[in-house]
Amino acid sequence: MAAIEILDLEKTYHVGFWRKRPKQALRPLRLTIEEGEVFGFLGPNGAGKTTTLKLLMGLASPTAGTARILGMDIDDPEVKAKIGFLPEQPYFYDYLTGRELLTYYAQLSGVAAKERSKRVEAMLERFGLSDSAGVQLRKYSKGMLQRVGLAQAILHDPKVVFLDEPMSGLDPMGRREVREMIQEMRNEGKTVFFSTHILSDAEALCDRVAIIHQGELRGVGAVAQLTSQTQGRVEIIFCAQTVPAALTALGVEARVSGDMVNAVVEEQKQDAALEILRREGIRLISLTPVRSSLEEYYIEKLRARGNGKGAGA
Amino acid sequence: MNSRIGYVAFNTFREAVRDRVLYNLIAFAVLLSGAAVLVGEISIDIERLVVVNLGLTAVSLFGVVIAIFMGIGLVSKEIEKRTLYTVLSRPLRRWEFVVGKFFGLTGTLIVNTLFMAIGVFLALLYVAHKFSPADLWVLVALYFIVLEFLIVCALALFFSSFSTPVMSALFTFALFVIGSLAEDLRGFAQLTLGAAGALATGIAYVVPNFSALNIINEAAHGDPVPGRLILYNTAYALLYSAMTISGAVLIFQRRNLK
After folding, report:
1. Min CA distance, A242 vs chain B (Å)?
2. Which domain does A104 fall in, by range?
3. Residue B193 Cα distances to A198, A257, B54, B197, B206, angstroms
């Protein structure tokens, strides 16, 4: 069963003093995310990622279209018990402690009273917050708040988790922790839908990604497939301080870095390049085909204006 | 009460207490004990009148200020700081959130008023050395002040569901002032003819009638309060706040969170 079905969801805001000027934040969006998938929703700032998440969470109402989560309409209050949400740069009640906040959210999520305390303590433990559980949130660091945010998102054991820019503003250690937590969610069989503009995170975590730009879906694809495509070029790394003239004559793009040279050559010229290296007695370090990166796909889709029609889930 | 409303109300109350809202009690205690000592020194036989008048007016003003400044931030602050995102993405309906906030705020004010009421009665005991049967009307006046808070909280919440905190504070305070003169406004409306009269009558009956809830002077003089007035005022305050909260819910229900 599809975990999330977005059916021509659309949002237009009216801006200006008299609210007469329409601003289309999201053009009709159609997207299906399967159960157990980690799905990346990519796009630059202001692309419509947060708007989509707000519509799915019922924080804003769509101008047209609808969406279903686990087969239930997003307006159905029942659906909220089965989803978890981490907003971008979350802010919580300053004067509550970490434990009180999680207890409050457990109450609102309908976690049974006898199970509540056990669940809260387990979350504090899992996210490394047990020592600071009695400290008020205003004294928490940004990384700790992000961990509280993740804890509240999965506290009630939701089947689908929505994360809006979960790595935003975190240091490398914090980002790594969040990545590991998303991996854990995947291992537990949860569906994770997360928005980001950090492509390396998406490449490392996602099964599939969608690219959105200016409120329009530009493309959807499986990460493994996108990054496995070769480009008809190979990368040769060898030991040398200069690039042999014969290689330059072959049309190789080369970059010298200390005692190493990194050269990229077309696949059909690979043998000729290797022959030159052998003839000159240069030690070869590695030879690998150049694969497409998610970044290239992303840039290509961003540049392809008005090309959303070809996209399909 | 629906349990989710209770959770929101309790959280609102807890946050208000930790946000040092109840610190106003210190200022109130200083003001009242200072006044009690002072009138004890300089006046003869009017100590009770002064203490009741001053005490109840302070209870009312302190409470109204808290109701306005907390009420205007209850919804808008949560939207601004985006705490609402993680709350409304749970199985909590928007009307439950608004009603929970209202109960949390009124709960805070009732606790605050309870402490202040104890202060007023201690001051009374200090100046009169004993309680008298007329002090019962002071209790009724305090009850009317609580009813006044219900309406002010509902108004602040209503305005904050669609307006900025500053504008909400201005609107609520303006209505509090106009409402305190509601009886005069009704008298003026009766004397005015034509369109102006109709307009004045309309305004007089739409604005909350805070003057009917103000019996501080009568309580200070020990005048009895008719049971019918207690009943009418209770029904009026409950109905007026319920209607205002319903308006807030209707607006908030349709609002897109930024």
Report:
1. 57
2. 2-227+296-310
3. 70, 94, 39, 5, 19
